[in-house]
Amino acid sequence: MKIIDMHCDTIGELFHRKETGEGENQSLRQNKGHIDLERLMGSHYLLQNFAMFIHLGDCGDPWEQVCAMYRYYLEELERNQDILAPVLCYEDIARNEAAGKLSALLTVEEGGVCKGELEKLGELCQMGVRMITLTWNFDNELGHPNFDVALREKLQQAAEGLRNCTPDTARWEQERLAAQAARDICMHTPNMTAGLTAKGKAFVEEMERLGIVPDVSHLSDAGFTDVSEVTKKPFVASHSNARAVCPNVRNLTDDMIRKLSERGGVMGLNFCPDFLEERPVGEKNPGTIAAVARHALHIARVGGMDVLGLGSDFDGIPTHGELPGAQSMERLWEALHRAGFSQSQLDKIFYGNVLRVYRDTLG
User: Fold this and answer.
1) Looking at the DSSP assignment, which residues form a beta bridge with residue 133?
2) Which segments of the chain have a pLDDT < 50?
């Protein structure tokens, strides 16, 4: 079994623990999060995408922040050069595998780090960045997301009101209805009108020229359409599921899945419990493998076997009850096999489809 995972937030999580003094004895090689190198190697990973996630609402200068995170990434590459090597071009993947090393592909989750300056995109390319998520949950110079942070805060406030009252009371029902309404606005209402800006379209064109894969996870529905029209090569939704199975706007519609497939792109199954299935407002959602299988079966039915990959979102999501980390991938393989996927189909899901996209896109 080989594995390629298109998205995790491990580098950012470890960087912030170090910055806040909470990361003592925590390293990329071994830590208490969802992913570390020892578990990746033990689970036969071929390649892990490491995202530099920048929260635009929680940092001063996003460019300075991503540069600081990059320096931390370089430190970890140096410390672990015996088992880890970067991917700068497609051929590096096979070279690293032949040397017995795990491949690391560096990505950015938040196109706003460039502050709309094309020359910064070139600098990211020089750093080794080979995939960029165009937006997170904030508007930026490139485009607009589906899931807005301000709306999420309203949802969190509504959920807090629900927790602070006693069930089976009039107030409970009022708070439940308020939380339900907030969730419907926040999680079920896609942005159909605001997509890529003119600058965003120019960035996507330059990304293709440089060999940087555009990532539409988090992007608005209108933005997805813009990317599909601007690009010529495959693009990806690195960590998004099927909206027909779970109606969260972070997931892709069937039409999006088909368009992504027609372009030769791939979408990565995201293990976030709330993107896999919804539970009633106020009920804990631990996450199940059965829900992951439902998304995989639907995506394959709609877009074919070549569009499906993995994008765990490990270290950026609440811990999934049945897939708590990189050590759980054999469990997922077995569950998908029981759900009806053959050995050759599982090879495509777990690494083959993403490997093909990298062959077709990386410089």
Assistant:
1) 109, 215
2) none
